[in-house]
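Sample A.
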Amino acid sequence: MKRKRITAKKLKIGIAAAFMIFSFSSVSAQQQVSLQEAIKQALQNKAEAKKAALQVKKAEYKIDEAKAGALPQISVAGGVSYNPIIQETVVEIMGQRNIFKMGQPWNSSISATLNQALFDQRVFIGLKAAKSTREFYVLNSQLTNEQIIVNVATAYYNVFVQEENLKTLETSYKNTEKVRNIIKSLVDNGLAKPIDLDRTNVQLTNIASNKQKLINGVELAKNSLKFYMGVPIDSPIELEEKSIEPRPELIAGQINLDNRSEIKVLRKQMELLQFNKKATEAFLYPTVSLQANYGWYGMGTKFPWFNGINNGVNWSDAASIGLNVNIPIFTGGATKSKIQQAEIDIQDLNQDIENTQLSLNLDYKNAATNMENALINIQSMKDNVALAEKVQANTQSNYQYGLATLTDLLDTDNSLTEAKQNYANALLDYKQAEIQLMKARGELNTLQNP
């Protein structure tokens, strides 16, 4: 009987040792993806980023279009016509009526016209507006990229935390499986009760069920990340192994709203509206342009092209140079109404800027508060993990000497697993708060090049 007690005691020590072994799942040989690489791929692949880049390129062509208005406009026109019936006119000369034909059966003309704007406010304002339009699309592209960065970073850390939770459950499953095997051996040798084996099997089944849920959760989270990265969903990815380090220093300091892309976009939009108002006012100013024309005309009884005077076709040229001045006098008040409408658009945008500033200030305050709470929660969950580990170690020690039951031992393992998962979730809450705070401070680009 004494021998059986000694053997059972040794087996209990073996069970406790099994719980102290932590092993993680092997990492696949797939290429690991860092957050910076994920963001880089997203900015290259996502449709939103590509469309924003196309708008910038389109703005370049708008600048070329505006420049064209200040350059000479040259056109060439030509044509040939045949008159089967030529109009006749009657001219009285010295009391005698004479009938003359007005023209020739064949007529041809080739002319070149040049127009050069010398003074046109609309052209010069349009050129300035085109340059501002390009700057607007560049800023809008930056705003689009920032949203992509937020989506990618949030999805990235969601996968990261889900994988950490999965590792915790895998460790718990392996430890519980080892204990189950030891208890089964004890039951087979009549040294343990079958109910202890049943309890361990129930524990193992529950862990396996939660593990499968997390495996699915990791896969879904990875699919979301791949979508935000703009890569095929079937592409295998593995995250770079890197720990999350809280940065409480981000809370310190003040923000400058002028650094926010949202404000920059609105101010550039204000600049465009002011140009629109000036362009409308330009309709009140006179315009001056130079026009030059040169033409070559042929008339005769035969098809003019490739024929000259010897074949009955006469060719002659003509040229003219003129100055056109257009002075608006009265437009019925239409221009004034358009100017007033443009001014209202400016005032309306001013309201949007003020409201956006208030909203961004609110976002910053909320992000800072959320991050402070997240930091407190991280420390609390970290202390809780340390306490759960201590409780588990004490319970294992007590179990070795018969001072704790198997139920107590399994409960402490559950508590430690839950504490580690809560800590991982607290890290996720922190990273989400950190991303929002960096966005509120206009510092998201540092995620690309930390």
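Sample B.
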Amino acid sequence: MRPGHFGLMGLALLIGATDLLVKGLGLAIMALPSLLLFGVALPALRRHLEGAGYWLSALLLSAMLASLASLLLQAGAFELHHALGPYLYLLVLPCLQLAASESPDTLDGLGAGLAFALLAVLLGTLREVLGHASLFAHFDWLLGPIALGWRLQLGADGIPLFAAAPGAFILLGTLLALWRRLTTRTADSR
């Protein structure tokens, strides 16, 4: 299967799950080790398996890592786990996107995890600031009672569009276009 079959599917869970910074941070904390471990195991899968066996083992490994991440988050931050709901299981998608790359390297998982984590935190921050006009809301879900008074109210009301999925599409598209513009300009200058 070629990478074009998956496209940006690995970013799908960011649309529904990053309406608050704490949710984006929770996804980042879960995605980084999952993608790193998947990236470490991927060259061995590619070396020993091919065709349907490769894809089945990649799917099973990614499902196991997503389930493990969900269980660890449930044990450590139950409220955040409950708020993220089924979105945690969609961590399978970035893993499969990584599996579709032409020649996966051990460090590809780290790169994919860092990029995903950065995008999750950035999108969560932007959506909370623009959509809810606040910052650090519900950080007690992640850090416990010590973070109860951390919410910063930045204005009276936010723009509800950015708290909803269509606003996430707009912001994600803007961030991806900005990234493409910056990387294209850098590549052209070389």
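B remarks: The first strand starts at residue 134 and ends at 135. The beta strands are 134-135, 152-153.
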